[in-house]
Amino acid sequence: MAGRTDVSAHGRELTLRGVALGGLITVAFTAANVYLGLKVGLTFATSIPAAVISMAALRAVGGATILENNIVQTVASAAGTLSAIIFVLPALVIIGWWTDFPYLTSAAVIGLGGILGVMLSVPLRRALVTGSDLPYPEGVAAAEVLRVGAGSGQGAEESRRGLRMLLLGSLASAAFAVIANTRLIAAEAAVAFRVGAGASSVSASFSLALIGVGHLVGVSVGLAMFLGMLISWAVLVPVSTAAHGLSEPLSALVSQTFRGDVRLIGTGVIAVAALWTLLKILGPIANGVRTALAAARLRREQGHRLDLAERDLPIAVVGGVIGLAIAPIILLLLGFATGGPVAANPWPIVIGSAAYVLIAGTVVAAICGYMAGLIGSSNSPISGVGILAALGAALLLAAAYGAGGPPDRVQALAAYALITTAIVFGVATISNDNLQDLKTGQLVGATPWRQQAALVFGVVFGALIIPPVLSLLNGAFGFSGAPGAGPNALTSG
Question: Quick check: 192 and 248 in contact, CB under 8 A?
Answer without folding.
Answer: no
